[in-house]
Structures are given as C-alpha cells and as structure tokens.
Amino acid sequence: MIDLSVPQRQSPLAIVFLGLRILRSLGIAQIVIVVLFIMRAPFNGALSVLPFVIIVAFGGFSALAWWRYTFQVLDDELVVTKGIVRVVRLNVPIERIQSIAIEQQLLHRLTGLVKVAVDTAGSNEAEFSIDAVARPVAEELQRRAVTAVPTPVKIGSALPPPVLAEDRVVFTHDGRRLLAMALTTWPLTGLLVLGPLLAFGGDFFNRLPDVGLGDQPFRWWWVPVGIAGFIVFSIVLNIIRVFLQDWELSLRASATSLRRTSGLLSRTSTASSVDRIQMVTSAQNPLQRRAGLRGIELATVGQRNLSVDGCDDAQFTTVLTLAAVTPIEELLLDRRIHPAAVWLAVRNATVVCALLTGALFWLIGWWSPLALTPIPLVWATTRLHVANFRWGLGQQLASSSHVLSLRTEQAVLHKTNAVTVTQSIFERRRGLGRVQLMTASGAISIGMIPIEEAHAARDTILHAVEIDTRPWI
Amino acid sequence: MADLFSNEPIPTDQLPRLADDAFVPVDPRYLQVSLTGLALTATVVATGTVVLATQSEWSVLALLIGSAALLVLVLVAVMRVFEVRRLAYQLREHDLSLRSGVISHRVESLPFSRVQHVNIHRGPIERSLGLATLQVSTAGPDISIPGLARADAERIKLLVTERADAVVDDDPPAPSLPPPRPPTG
Predict the structure, then answer these.
(1) Count of CB contacts below 8 A, A vs B?
(2) What's the average model confidence in pLDDT over A293-301?
(3) Which of A289, A324, A359 is the last residue of a domain?
(4) What is the pLDDT of residues A76-103, one digit of tens each?
(5) Residue A94 domain-assigned?
(6) Any domain includes A210
(7) Does A444 reside within a domain?
(8) Could you give the number of structural domains in chain A?
(9) B139/A421 Cβ within 8 A
(10) Residue A454's closest chain B neighbor by CA?
C-alpha cells in the first residue's frame, strides 16, 4: 500500500522531462538564437568553457526542479508543490478531478515508468501532469480520484477495483485529414511559421543562396512565376504549420466535459466542461466546402476557446451534440433580413469611396476614380449576403450567412447574459432594428429586421432565460 | 433535462412585453453631472486658444482650431441634453432594462439571474447633488444606470441582489461533499 499522504517525489527520470519542459517554455526562437550564438561567438581561452557551464547549469536547474516537485494527497486534496525561486502550491480537490490518464511514452516504456495526466476540466491552471512515476503510485492516485466521486462508499468494505475515469476519444484526425485541412485553409496563414525566423532579421536572409538574377534584364514572365512560386511556398509552409500544430488532433469527451489535444513538438490540451460552452460557431470557405470540411469554435467562459478544425459533416453534428446544442441543420432557420441592408452598405461605401477619390485626385490625378471600384463589389456581396442570410429563434438563436464562406452561429437561449435592441437612424426610418444576444463569451447579432420582430425576439429570449432553471455556467 | 422544466412553445403575443412607456427617466439633474466634464474641457480649450492667439504668431490658425473645437463641444453638449432626456430604466420582476442613445436608440435588458455583482458609484459632483450611478455586472456585458437618487440606487441594488440570490436558491442543490474518510494507512 502506497501512502500518498507523505510527499512523493517523481522518479529521477523526470529530470529529463522537466528539462524539456523548461526548454519548451523558453520558446523555439529563443533556443535557436542561443544555439546560433554559441556556435558563432568566438570562444577561446577561458570563454571556451562557457557552453559547458551553460549545459551543466541547465542540468543542475532541471535536477533542482525535480527535487522541489512533490505531490501528496491531504484531506481529499491533491497538493502539488513545485518551483525553485517562486514556490507554487497547487491544491486540487480530488472530487473535482475529471479524469486521470496514465500514459506511457517511449522513454517511459524503456524504464517502466508512467506519466499521469490530471484533468480537472474547467480551470486550465489546474490541468497538469506528473511526468514520471512508478505505476503503483499512479494507480493509487487514480483509485483515490475515482473513489472520491461523491457516491456512498462503505467504510471498511473492500475498496472497489480501480475504474478508469478516462474520457473516450470521439475522433482523431489522421495525416490525410491534416493534409486536406492544410490545403483548404487560406495559404498565407502558413507564413506564420516564418515568424520565429524574423527574430534573426537580416542574418537569416543573408545566408540564403544568391540566385544571381541581378544583372539580367527584366522579363514580364517573372511576375506570374514569382507569384505562383510564392503561393506554392506559402502552401508548403501551411502544411508544415498544420502538421506542427494539429498533429493527432483529437477530441475526447467524458460525461460532462470536452477536451481537445493536438501538437507534434509540444502537445496542447484544452478542456472545458459542457456547461461552460456559451456559443458555437462554424466556418467553411469554398475550398473547405469542396473537401466537405469545416472549422468549429466553441466559445467558453473565462478560458481559451475550444476550436476544432477540419471536421466533416458527421463530426460537425457530433461536436454540436456533445456541446449540448442542436445540430444546425435540424434547426428551423426561416427568417431573413431586410434588403435595405444592400442600400445602406452601398451608400456608406459610396460616401467613403467618393471622399477617397477626391483626396487621391491631388496625388494620382485622373487615376483616382479607380478608388470607386469597390462600390459594385460591395453591392454584389451584400446582395448575396441578404439573399443567403437566414436566422431562427426557437430554443436557440441561430444564424447562417453565406457570401463566400458559410458561417453559422448558435447559442442556447438560457446562456444569455443580456439582450439588446438597437435602432440606428437608418433603421428607425424604415421601422427596422437589431437584436443582440450576449453571452458570457461572444454575442449573436441579427440586424436589419423589422423592429417588432426584434422586440418579440427580445421578449422571447428574456422569457426563456427567466423560466429556465438549468445551470448556465 | 426534459423533466426539469417544461418548455412548450408560447405564441409571441402572449409573452410579457417590455412596454415602451413603463420606463422611468433618470433624474434630470444628471445633466449637470454630464455637462460638468464638458464645461471643464471647454474652459481649458478656450484658455489655450486665447493664450495662443495673443502670444504666438499663429494666431489665426489657433483661433480657427480653437473655435472649431469649441463648436464640437457645444454640439456634444446639445447631444448630452437629448441623451439625458432619453436615459431611462425599467425594473420588472425578473429583469432590468436601460434605454439610451439619441442617434442610435438602444435598449439593454439583463435578467437578474445572470447578475454577478452590483455596485454603486458616486463621483464628487454626483455626491453634491445626491445622485448615484448603479453598475450591474454579468459574466458578459455590464450596464450602468447613472442619475439615480441615492436612496433609489440603494433600493434597486438591494432588489437586484435579492432577486439574484432567489434564483440561485431555485437551482438544484450542488452535490454535497462526501463524508470525511477515516485516516488510511
């Protein structure tokens, strides 16, 4: 029997994991800078020991971190004490622990140790893992967490066998899906990968091989070839970005919570209890529509939102059901917005473009009327917007808009924190208005609808909130 | 979920309506509070303009900019007059609404059951006039009702907190903690 009430230390192997964790917390760009610095700086004489000093210091630091990291179970709380300079004491009430996962990575398998991932679904702060402990310790911890679920436990009777309180995997994106995701998102997002490289400034770009086109005369076909090359380059970068960020993207669900994990080099895990989900939005661009994929975002209170990209239609329905909202295709979205929206958008665009044309006339002369070209574009897109926009109000307020991308937004009425009805001068003259449902995280706004309809929607939402006794958070 | 409450569809015309004529306007003296800040700004701008116009060589430009700024301030003041006239609140059994806005009309409604905290703010000018601003916060948006008589603000604050508590009491009780276990090992 392992006594968890005395402070436990991890296995010394944890030094490696703690060291990696510290490295990760420094950031890739910083590490590359340090490595470059060490490689390029002229180390001679006494200075040549500097790299060794850094490595030894780092090892000592990791070992100290391991020594200071203890955990124990005291009075039904899991208490973790860690930190070298700043001591952090983390108290997690055991019955709040949603799941304790026991994992074994490659290094663990070689040494027979396990990693314990503690998920409290709610506060990100308290979601943590104990890197390397012996399996009996992990199982004892798991048993304590599982038996702490507020169910009558007969004192003195034989302890129940450990039941894994683990959440089930709803789906995991495989490599093909990730590739499809990367190819269907806006390619320029791939350029984000270059971000850390900018830290080196000119140094990095000076090292790129010189192609040597300097003295050749300009040829017109350089432009299209250059643009095509740039697009291919960003697509490749985007594939790299998606594989780094979303590797093995998986969604897990327990009875009360959802958890998303992904990442190749550093795994991120975001969890939220279902009650904390306030709003659900989805987006699908034309490319994604061809591939049958879409991105879903679950807005939650007080922490990072859960966003799951690259879901097919079945997964979309599953996620919505897990998030306790009705799948959008089962909702009755039969209301439209007033076509005056087109006139308003065109009028505003015309005013802005005309002013711009006037101002630009002093700069570029008769080319300035080119600034008027956005007007027909605005006209066409808002016409499309008005023609395709649908919204509905039942147990949920939901809207779907479709210009180029298809976007949906929905919120269950009892998540409402406030409702607002507004009327601009333009809307007032036409008897129109806007109703806005505000949740604790995000809002759904439906404008350009008859003011009586906006008032009725407001009354319906308030009534729904006030008669509903379900917890909303 | 279904056994907790029923949720039959209700025809919209049978829902309790937020009546437009039941709004209570805020104290008209709030206009003084609202205009004092503007008056201070206007004084500073006017002084600056006069000093620049008499002391520097850019007197014409200073006069032009200064008078334009003063004109804008006057327009804002006129807007404030209408704004304070439109500012009104309405308390119902389960929610609180605030009407505001001149150019763009706006009615915000906030159910008591979503209120996180309420506080009363009183600036120096409000104090001298016996007024108070009530700030009601939720986990999402907040609303603040200025220009309330101090006693009214206290009463509304009490009402809102009572109502918010009453709703909490209606909720199913939170799972109680498990009984303490005897020390093991």
Answers:
(1) 119
(2) 91
(3) A324
(4) 888 888 888 888 888 887 777 766 777 7
(5) yes
(6) no
(7) yes
(8) 3
(9) no
(10) B107
- Judged by DSSP in three states, B110 sits in strand
Calculate how close chain A gets to B97, using CA atoms only, in Å. Answer: 9
Chain B residues close to A466, C-beta within 8 Å: 94-95, 111, 113
Please state, in angstroms and rounded to a whole number, the distance separating the CA atoms of residues A382 and B153: 45
Q: Are residues A304 and A444 in the same domain?
A: no
Tell me, what's the pLDDT at B178? Answer: 46
Residues B26-81: tens digit of each pLDDT: 999 999 999 998 999 999 999 999 988 888 788 888 899 999 999 999 999 999 99
Domain membership of residue A142 as a residue range: 8-150
pLDDT in the model for residue A207 = 63
Q: In terms of pLDDT, which residue wins out, B177 or A403?
A: A403
- Measure CB to CB from residue B139 to each of A301, A422, A468 and give the nearest one: A301
Give the Cα separation of A208 and A422 in Å (integer).
56
**B interface mutation test: which of A274, A421, A439, A448 has the most B CBs within 10 A?**
A421
Residue A215 lies in a domain: no
* Side chain identity at residue A109, one-letter code: R
User: What's the pLDDT band for A1 if we cut at 50, 70, 90?
Assistant: low
Longest dimension (CA), chain A: 93
A367 and A341 assigned to the same domain: yes
Q: What is the band of B128 on the pLDDT scale with cuts at 50, 70, 90?
A: very high
B177-185 long-range CB contacts below 8 Å, 24 or more apart? Answer: B177/A95, B177/A150, B178/A76, B178/A95, B178/A148, B178/A150, B178/A151, B178/A153, B180/A76, B181/A76, B181/A153, B181/A155, B182/A155, B183/A5, B184/A3, B184/A5, B185/A1, B185/A3, B185/A5
Give pTM, 2 decimals: 0.73
Q: Is the ipTM of this complex over 0.85?
A: no
Beta bridge partner(s), residue B90 = B97
Tokens of A163: 């039941």
With tokens 């350089």, the residue in question is A222
- Domain coordinates of chain B in residue numbers? 30-83, 88-170
> Over 90: is that where the pLDDT of A294 sits?
yes
- Kindly state whether residues A368 and A400 are assigned to the same domain: yes
Q: Given A301, A324, A347, which residue is the final one in a domain?
A: A324
At residue A152, what are phi and psi to the nearest 5 degrees? Answer: -60, 120
Residues of B in contact with A150 (CB under 8 A): 175-178
**Cβ–Cβ below 8 Å for B111 and A395:** no
CB burial class (10 A; 0-12, 13-18, 19+) of residue B75? exposed
Q: Are residues A376 and A301 in the same domain?
A: no
Q: Where are the beta strands (DSSP E) in A113-256?
A: 113-119, 128-134, 168-172, 250-253
Residue of chain A whose alpha carbon sits nearest to that of B110: A418
Token duo for residue B58: 């850019």
| Cα of A314 to nearest chain B Cα, Å | 24
CATH 2.30.29.30 fits B88-170, yes or no: yes
